[in-house]
């Protein structure tokens, strides 16, 4: 893929629910917003490090149980809502998965939150283990969950057949919830709710390679929530101008001043990529209420929130009236003209990745240019200067993986397989990157952008490559080779790193979990997606109600917005979607072991 390090940064945005949201509902029974303190007990389940090939090594998996919602009349038939933990400590999901707390109280469910292996406190002893990173995988995690369910049922006296288990998960956890239902239907016997789960994001399912950026662009709105084409055009103009400004000393000085960037500026391609990537984060967090979700997950700052509907504020920063900046020409073919309505007018001709102007004036002297660049700087600062105390911004190289940098850098790697690093030195990105390499979890719906369907520029591939390359060739060309092998050099062994065995086309995930065939062979799964969410480009968006596959799409939803606690600011589409989810879940709880009752009949 486009370097694994950059992919990891995008995947870190998945650390879904990883921030301590404060806009949460409160229940009398909880006496406050949900937290790890609300677990009626925290248990550690002894799990084999390798479920499939034997061995004596084990680790303790942390599990939170809340048993306070059970109804006396349900007895051993009480349902279980089971969170399939993803790439983070379990308390992050306990704190923020509002859908389980609100529906769990309504439906009398036992809540179980299982921590994913190699995250939080659920680590095996790595130092001295042979090929210690070989066992971080979705397949091993699902086997863990399949063992946790009967453990919990035995502990609480629940009937193994009649107590329905419904899996919940967001992002990667949503993928796991769907896969849990597919691979262990006798354990996950009630159904699964997969929020913002990009199960169609592997190359084997052939999602649009620019799909994430199309979703982001289509979420550009004005203050009233209406589509804002002028915002789209302002961004296209801004990227073009930044590229041209970087060619002169006066232009670079303006960029440093108006963007608030540290000197010296990085190469323009890196600068543009850094500025554009923040839109991915803001789109994920395009919630109807102020939220610290992305703030905490990306810059680890508590007490600071993005505003409600942050993408609308993005447009307010960059939107330029057509009387100052306008576009004409063929945007879909990336042949357009940027008109700067100065006196006299300045025109910039754009043809794919080339931009030029014949005007002799220095662009940095034009007020329309300064205002537009300043707006981009304010957009970037919405997140990265949310504290208001950042003197200047700087870019992080794609090749940096900060947590890996802490590990041993000098060690002879060849011929060794015994790990020499303590688990405490292995961060979330380390574990996630190993899983990606081990199982071919290379998602591709964000590999390309700027191809004429979004508000990005320049295109990430040449016009000839796009026209003459197959889908698979485009995927392979955008992938980096080296990142999976970086573990070996740091005393961590077992990560799949041989180019001959890496799986960038996602063949293993397809063989294990299916792709688009989920709708044909799966049953009792809700796939929920928000239209604003970049990950929705790889989500299941069409229902197959005869199979019990229900797609719930939120017109005004971002990254698993429906999993958050309800708020008074929720738009009607979100409230209606949540009500539909509840109807479907209720139908699962009253149906037999076969397919779900279609929601229309509930």
Automatic annotation (TrEMBL):
InterPro entries per the UniProt record, alphabetical: AB_hydrolase_fold, Peptidase_S28
A Pfam match: Peptidase_S28
Swiss-Prot/TrEMBL keywords: Carboxypeptidase, Glycoprotein, Hydrolase, Protease, Signal
Domain of life: Eukaryota
GO molecular function terms noted in the UniProt entry: carboxypeptidase activity; dipeptidyl-peptidase activity; serine-type exopeptidase activity
Gene Ontology BP annotations: proteolysis
Position of the signal peptide: 1-24
Family to which the UniProt record says this protein belongs: Belongs to the peptidase S28 family.
UniProt xrefs under PANTHER family: LYSOSOMAL PRO-X CARBOXYPEPTIDASE, PROTEASE S28 PRO-X CARBOXYPEPTIDASE-RELATED
Protein name, as recorded: Lysosomal Pro-X carboxypeptidase
């Amino acid at each position: 893929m486009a370097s694994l390090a950059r992919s990891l940064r995008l995947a870190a945005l998945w650390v879904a629910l990883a921030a301590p949201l404060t806009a949460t509902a409160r229940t009398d029974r909880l006496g406050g917003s949900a937290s790890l303190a609300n677990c009626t007990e925290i248990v550690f389940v002894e799990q084999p490090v390798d479920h499939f090939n034997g061995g004596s090594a084990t680790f303790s998996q942390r599990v939170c149980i809340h048993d306070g919602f059970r109804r006396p009349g349900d007895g051993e038939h009480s349902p279980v809502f089971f969170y399939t933990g993803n790439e983070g400590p379990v308390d992050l999901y306990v704190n923020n998965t509002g859908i389980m707390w609100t529906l769990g109280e309504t439906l009398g469910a036992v809540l179980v939150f299982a921590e994913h292996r190699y995250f939080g406190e659920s680590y095996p002893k790595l130092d001295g283990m042979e090929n210690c990173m070989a066992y971080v995988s979705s397949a091993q995690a699902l086997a863990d969950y399949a063992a946790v369910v009967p453990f919990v049922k035995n502990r609480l006296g629940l009937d193994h057949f009649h107590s329905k288990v419904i899996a919940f998960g967001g992002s990667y956890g949503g993928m796991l919830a769907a896969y849990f239902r597919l691979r262990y239907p006798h354990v996950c016997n009630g159904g699964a709710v997969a929020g913002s789960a990009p199960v169609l994001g592997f190359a084997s399912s052939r999602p649009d390679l620019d799909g994430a950026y199309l979703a982001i662009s289509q979420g550009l709105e004005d203050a009233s929530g209406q589509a804002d084409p002028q915002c789209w055009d302002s961004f296209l103009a801004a990227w073009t101008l930044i590229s041209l400004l970087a060619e002169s000393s006066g232009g670079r000085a303006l960029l440093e001043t108006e963007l608030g960037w540290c000197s010296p500026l990085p190469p323009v391609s890196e600068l543009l990529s850094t500025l554009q990537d923040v839109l991915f984060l803001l789109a994920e967090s395009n919630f109807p209420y102020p939220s610290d979700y992305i703030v905490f997950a990306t810059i680890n700052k508590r007490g600071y929130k993005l505003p409600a509907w942050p993408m609308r504020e993005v447009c307010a920063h960059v939107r330029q009236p057509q009387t100052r900046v306008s576009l004409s020409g063929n945007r879909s073919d990336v042949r357009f003209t940027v008109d700067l309505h100065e006196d006299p007018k300045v025109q910039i001709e754009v043809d794919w990745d080339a931009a030029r102007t014949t005007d002799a004036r220095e662009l940095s002297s034009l007020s329309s240019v300064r205002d537009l660049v300043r707006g981009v700087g304010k957009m970037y600062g919405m997140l990265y200067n949310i504290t208001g105390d950042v003197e200047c911004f700087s870019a992080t190289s794609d090749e940096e993986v900060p947590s890996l940098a802490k590990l041993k850098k000098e060690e002879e790697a060849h011929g060794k397989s015994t790990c020499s690093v303590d688990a405490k030195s292995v961060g979330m990105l380390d574990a996630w990157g190993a899983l990606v390499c081990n199982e071919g979890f290379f998602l591709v719906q964000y590999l390309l952008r700027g191809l004429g369907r979004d508000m990005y520029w320049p295109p990430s591939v040449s016009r000839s490559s796009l026209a003459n390359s197959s889908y698979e060739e485009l995927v392979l060309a955008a992938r980096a080779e080296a990142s999976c092998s970086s573990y070996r050099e740091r005393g961590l062994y077992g990560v799949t790193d041989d180019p001959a065995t890496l799986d960038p086309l996602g063949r293993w995930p397809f063989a294990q979990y299916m792709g688009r065939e989920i709708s044909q062979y799966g049953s009792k799964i809700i796939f929920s997606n928000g239209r604003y969410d970049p990950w929705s480009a790889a989500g299941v968006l069409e229902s197959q109600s005869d199979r019990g596959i229900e797609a719930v799409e939120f017109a005004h939803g971002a990254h698993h917005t429906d999993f958050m606690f309800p708020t008074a600011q929720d738009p009607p589409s979100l409230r209606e979607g949540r009500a539909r989810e509840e109807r479907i879940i209720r139908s699962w709880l009253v149906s037999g072991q076969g397919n779900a009752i279609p929601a229309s009949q509930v």
